[in-house]
Amino acid sequence: LTQTDVTPVKATPTLPDAQTVTEVKHYTDRLFSFRCTRPASLRFRSGEFVMIGLMGEPHPETGKQKPLLRAYSIASPSWDEELEFYSIKVPDGPLTSRLQHINVGDQIILRPKPVGTLVHDALIPGKRLWFFATGTGFAPFASLLREPQTYEDYDEIIITHTCREVGELTYGRDLIAALKEDELLNELIGEGFWKKIKYYPTTTREESPKMGRITDLMRSGEAFADLGVPPLSPETDRAMICGNLAFNLELKEMFEEYGLEEGANSRPAHYVVEKAFLD
Ligand code: A2P
Hints:
With about 280 residues, this protein is of the alpha/beta class. The N and C termini lie far apart (about 55 Å). The protein is about 25% helix and about 30% strand.
């Protein structure tokens, strides 16, 4: 044996379930997205979420570190070889105050156990599929909009996205614009599949072509008039909701008035709801 063979190599500290960051994009001072490697064994359905995070700060006395994890919707579709996430930056948020500073080559923790209700399996067949999002609640729809099944199962897809400011719409707007050029979807679904999409972005705290909360715009009938469709009905419409708590509750109440029933993986129905991540 040579000397080098017996010298113990100092182990490089590697995170459990570590994945490597491959791309980071910042949209506003409150929003960013990033991509990372995907574990070869990870299978998920478009629209599901996983727990991701970073190693927490060492305990002041014991020095022990525990993973700091949060539920994040996977924003990339199930067929993508990488994973994408869309995140808020909360200045004093335990995770996002640090996660917002990640760079390409850094490691994050990803627990490979996908779950969630914003999946095609939780809805019964229908004609028109609605996505209702506020802020980072757009993430699961970023996955589903790149999933061929979305266009196979529905004649029309309507995406509503309500944000405070115009800059917060960029991630969604760019993604929808890119669908037009998506070679895989064009090949699988047929050219022009993206014409099935109606995009309805609104802002509440900055001037934009369509202002107001989507809930108010639906109650007044303005949203339906703009989109040229009737209000949601259990016969034709299916919906997925992902936003802040008040938004989710308000829409649930409206849907029950329309006669829509909430579905789940075990009992598919007309609509499904999930809370958008807030640190
Ligand atoms: P608003 O500015 O009127 O509160 P947040 O960043 O606070 O999660 O909000 C994201 C977007 O969701 C904002 O445009 C906000 O509008 C809107 N919003 C908040 N609560 C509701 C609700 N109950 N119904 C519809 N939109 C809502």
